[in-house]
Every structure is written in C-alpha cells, then in structure tokens.
Design a protein that fits this description.
This protein is α+β, with helices and mostly antiparallel strands and 279 residues long. The protein is built from 7 helices and 13 strands. The structure holds 2-oxoglutaric acid and fe (ii) ion. Pathway: Alkene biosynthesis; ethylene biosynthesis via 2-oxoglutarate.
Length: 279
C-alpha cells in the first residue's frame, strides 16, 4: 500500500481522494485552499504559548472539555496503559481561547471547516447508493455550524530521556469523529497502519493536508469507509531535541444527528468518552 498525494485542483481529485479514503482510511491533498502562512503563524504562536506558564491559566474543564490538557493528564489511547507524551489545547467555538491567539485560530477553524464540508460532499458523491442511502442527512449538513467540532492544538515536547518505558508521542488509535483534517505537522512521525498490519509513514511534506476517517463515518457508512489506526512515533537522534506541533480538526456532527440505527452522534460520542475515562 502507498499513500498517493492528490492535487486538490486536479480534474479527478474528488474521485481519487475518496478512493484513497476507502482503501487506506487516509487521503493526502496538496495545492489546497488552506493558507500555509496561517498554519505556520499558528505553529509559532502556540509553540510560544506552550513554552509559557500562561497555559496553566486555561486548565481544561471536564464538563466542557475546552482549554489546556497538561502532559500529566494527557490521553491514554484506548487499549493502552501508558500515557502519550503530549500536551494539548482544545478550541471549541464557544470555549475559552487566549485573546492574543483568538484571531488566527478562529480564522483557521472557519477555513478548515469550509474545506471539510466540501470534502464531505466529495465523500457523499462517491459513496455507492447502497451506502449513501444509509446517511440520515447529507454528510456536510451533519457538521453545519456544529459546536462539537473540535480543533486540537497538540504540542509534543522535546524528548527528555526520562519518558515512561514504552511511551510514545501518540499511541495507536482511531479517531472518534466523522473525518479529521490535519495540516502536515512541523516534524515527521505520523504513521498509518496498513491492512496487513505494517506501519507506513504518512507523507508529511509541509503544506500537505492530511484527512483521515474516524469511527463515526465508519459507523454511518456501515463499515464501507474504514477508520484506520494511526500513531505518532518518537523522534530519534538530533530530532529528539525538537518539539512537534500539530493541528487536527475533528469534525463532529451536531448532537442530534442520527448516525446509524444504533446511535445519534451524541450517544456515540458519550459512549467513547466514557470508555476513555475523560467524562
Ligand atoms: O499529531 C498528529 O500528527 C496526529 C494526532 C492524532 O492522531 C490525534 O490527536 O488524534
Ligand atoms: Fe488521531
């Protein structure tokens, strides 16, 4: 298996993109409309924020899940026992955001959401009728003005050498949401698991946008679109002294959206958050 980078502006980009999602759970787009300059500025601004003590003024609230999640309370991926080596901040439209960082991050949130809605129309268009018949409403409408869509700014600190044995930056996991939209991070490390169980580097050329399927789209498509396991491995050699910043946007439907015969979006999310032990 290989992950091909798809030119967003190519005449057959939609079809190729959905084919890649179906076969690998991932799609990589170049030449897309998200400003790389904006992404770079965000990486710089948030690196400074994570390096400062100000982050501690924004400790996350369990009820709303917005704010700063320190490394000490960071996630343990489903099925794992060791915490990931990361800290992060959750941006929601109604959540807390430091004033100085608000403008760029909310601009990015809006732009990435617009791209995401377009990509969901691509997924819908190239879903076989037997699959799209199962969608309760058009996929793009599911996320329209959703306050549940989450932008996570992740900081993987330099390796100290004192990490817990077996800990990695992000242990293998699947995302909970419909699709995840992720600009290539400022350092490599993201890998996707192939059907035969091997780990493959996701092309991380700066400027690419990486999209992956989450469990909610897998549920809504009755398994046609696979939610693929991915992870972020630790750097080696001189890269150990470098931080890594990444910016996944997790597309969440409005809570009342019917995902499948079994679940609304809200029921599905709560079940998963309970399993993770964060609510
Ligand atoms: O940092 C990355 O590149 C990916 C992060 C990720 O998979 C996640 O937070 O769900
Ligand atoms: Fe993920």
């Amino acid at each position: 298996m290989k992950l091909e980078t798809i030119d967003y502006r190519a005449p057959d980009s939609a079809e190729q993109f959905v084919k890649s999602l179906r076969e690998t759970g991932f799609g990589v787009l170049s030449n897309h409309p998200i400003s790389q300059e904006l992404v770079e500025t965000i990486y710089q601004e948030w690196q400074a924020f994570f390096n400062s003590d100000e982050k501690n003024d924004y400790l996350f609230k369990p009820e709303t899940q917005d704010g700063f999640f320190p490394a000490s309370t960071s996630e343990t991926a489903k099925g794992h026992t060791v915490k990931d080596i990361k800290e992060y901040f959750h941006v929601y439209p109604t959540g807390r955001i430091p004033d100085a960082l608000r403008k760029n991050i909310t601009t990015y949130y809006d732009h990435a959401n617009s791209l995401a809605a377009e990509l969901l129309t691509w997924v819908e268009k190239y879903s076989p009728a037997s699959v799209s018949d199962k969608y309760s409403i058009p996929l793009a409408d599911m996320i329209d003005n959703s306050e549940k869509t989450l932008l996570r700014i992740l900081h993987y600190p330099p390796m100290s050498g004192n990490e817990e044995v077996g800990a990695i930056r992000a242990a293998a996991h699947e995302d909970i949401n419909l699709l995840t939209v992720l600009p290539a991070a400022n350092e490599p490390g993201l890998q996707v698991q192939t059907k035969d169980g091997n780990w493959l580097d996701v092309p991380s050329d700066f400027g690419n946008i990486i999209i992956n399927i989450g469990d909610m789209l897998q549920e809504a498509s009755d398994g046609y679109f696979p939610s693929t396991s991915h992870r972020v491995i630790n750097p080696k050699g001189s890269d150990m002294s470098k931080s890594r910043i990444s910016l996944p946007l997790f597309l969440h439907p409005n809570p009342d959206v019917i995902l499948s015969e079994k679940y609304t979006a809200d029921e599905y999310l709560n079940e998963r958050l309970r399993e993770l032990g964060v609510i």
